[in-house]
User: Fold these one by one.
Assistant:
Number 1:
Amino acid sequence: MSHETPWAVLMCKFKDDQRGFVAIKRQDVEAMFTAPDIENVVTFWRDVSYGEVDLSGSKTFGWLTLDQKQQDFNDALATLGNDKARSAMFSWALKAASDAGIKLDSYYGVTVYMSTPTDLWGGLQGSTGQVVCDVDSSLPQILQEYGHGYGLQHSRSVIDPTDYTNPFCIMSSMSFGRNNVDSTWHDPRFIDHDPTFAGRNGSSGPGLCSPYMSQKGWLPDSRTQHVGSNGSRPETTILKLSALGEFNAAFPQAAIIEFDSPQSLTYFIEYRRGGWDKGINYNPIVVHQLRADKYSYFAGYIRTVTTGMTGSEGTPVQAAGRWYVDAQFDLSVELLSLVDDGAAVLIRIAPAAAGRDLSVRTIANSTLGLSGAFSIKTQVLSPSDSSVRDKLIFLLS
């Protein structure tokens, strides 16, 4: 049963803005926040919650003119700091709405959309979602702020446990699709394709990671398979996974494994393909950790198709036999085959030894797509790498 969470979108301008708002097409703003049938705020949260979150009652209001100039907000930032200045500006917008006779009590959340480049943030105040964005905000950025409005945190990665470092989650939207070769978690040999896609509202993607879907109650047991574990290693299990973004999935969409050694956390294994993930042309099996701090951490992935190579009739070459092996926990994941023309995958979850039984040469060949003889020094390591072991652990994870 869906939960109605309509948002009021207040289209606002500072009192000294005489030009910015004129250049903005009202129908474009309405399409971004209220249209029922395009890739936008409404359909994203409907899709990643499997219909549990209903924003169809959202409505735009304005233009509303604030009593303040843009410099007043800039001065507040300088003197009060981000939190107090943002709270003040949000109050300015609420006053403008009240002065215009707009009733907001029936709305789950309030979005303040500014006509000039101003600010970008989101949060949950009590039970009310709050978002501020502006004319320069992209759809992925706005989707992330709405995520905060639903109580979600930023997402992170194991290799770089700071905010915005999960390339497969909308809660790291500031990082997704940048193809930043300078970032340690975004190595160009592994993510060699900008996974965003172009929609009516500009570049977009990805979906929401499965740990956060589960955390919000949007990933029911009927869509998951729990894998047995003794707390430090999983039971060997072979299972099929449908793509995480599939509404009418034939198979479970996330494998879940509980660990309590060397620390307590939950592993989520998911398959990403199509929908809001359609820009990822190598259709990865993605591994996440949900830790005690309630953050989701990207841990690694397996390509299910080999990009840049095609088989008969131009179909992607399947990357069967590839592994994810955890460098810390006793876990391995192997891609066995694609199912139903790639609509699902067959995988094996097992203790890490299952993957380590393979030779380093075999694993590196599979991971890097190499064939024949190769040199770890010249083909696996870059000149700046100081540790063969550390780099191989990174390759395996």
Note: DSSP finds ten helices and 21 strands in the chain.
Number 2:
Amino acid sequence: MKKKKPSLAETVSRNIRKARLEAGMTQKELADKAGFKVSYIARLETKPQNLSLETLETICTVLRVDPYKIVLGTASINLETRQKTVLLEAMDILKRI
């Protein structure tokens, strides 16, 4: 049986948790610095769900990680500079819509 590819929401949830742990933060520390409740951060990390680009940007700013790394995960490490630029520009356009 083929293994199901994780949804984008599952990937983002997993990568938020991974980035938080790599930053050496607890869920409470991330929540406090980002201005969210701890329960919200816990839900983001455990239950894949849609989140706004604004929320993603806030979390990435606090964790000091580029949004594409949260969205694309470990594969993003090998992106060429131009690909990163295009992705960041697209995210900026979507924020303004």
Note: The longest helix spans residues 81-96.
Number 3:
Amino acid sequence: MLTMYHNPRCSKSRKTLEIIQDSGIDLAIVQYLQETPDANRIQQLAGLLDMPVAGLLRRGEDEFKNANDLPDLGDDSAVASWIEQHPRTLERPIVVDDEHGRAVVGRPPENVQVLLEQ
């Protein structure tokens, strides 16, 4: 089963969802603006994606650009806690295969194909 951190208002997220649903693979959908992952999960996601937590930031979001409380972006723990408090800044969509310890960001949506080929 895959887990997708999804924002239904995002076209990339909707397209990624469509690709997964068309594949027939079981999927748990987490609408992360309503069910925000905690800081520990955010750090896990970054680890699965093999990137620093700051790599999960949507730096073009107004909430990020206008933030006056940003932590040191090199401090994974602090950045994860900040993202937890500002979930709009979390990159999307993130699709996770916890069973196999893999994840991808669906930008472009076709990135998810690597998780569908098992």
Note: Residues 2-116 form a domain with the Glutaredoxin fold (CATH 3.40.30.10).
Number 4:
Amino acid sequence: MKRRAALITGFEPFGGYASNPSADVARHLDTRRVAGAPVVGRVLPVDMAVLDAALAAVLRAVDPVAVILLGLAPGETVIRLERVALNLADFSIPDNAGARAVDRPLAAGSPAALWTRLPLRAIQARLLAAGIPARLSETAGTYLCNAAMYAALARLPRRVPCGFIHLPLSPGEVARLISDSGGQTLPSMALSLQRKAVELALLATLAGLAKTRRPKA
């Protein structure tokens, strides 16, 4: 029987980075409970050829009450809440298998875009109230983060809240980059704060779900 749980996914490191905070947050939340709901955290491959199958396998094992997909946005200064997934793969860098999609539809004959089903305004309000900077973003890009968001929204029933959140680099990763190459100093956010942000996002999502299911008098 499928396990009824909230699902959080992250991605493995990519693009020359040694770590990916989205994977750390997903692993951190795995087996925890948020608002009474058990949480399953999983890490997805940065490999276009196997991403869809990996996501499908996770969804076969879990009956999700909500799904929050996470990814890394190097250079981002805040928690970024994505509004839209595009039916497009167009990579600025290769994936971890060396593949580089160009102007490729993710699903031929499917909608050009799919809207998030997360309560982004409520999530942003919770984060800002907690002193965590967060902003709404128009799209999840055209890399694997976008591909995962599109695939999840297409696969899941509309009643299941689902969407994508981008995270900044961790301070440790930026320190490593400076130490290794003396390269550009990039913005970062403490992993503890990123973990708290995703927990608050899940709380807001589950609270919104409870409201929609509350019987009317």
Note: The chain has a mean pLDDT of 95.
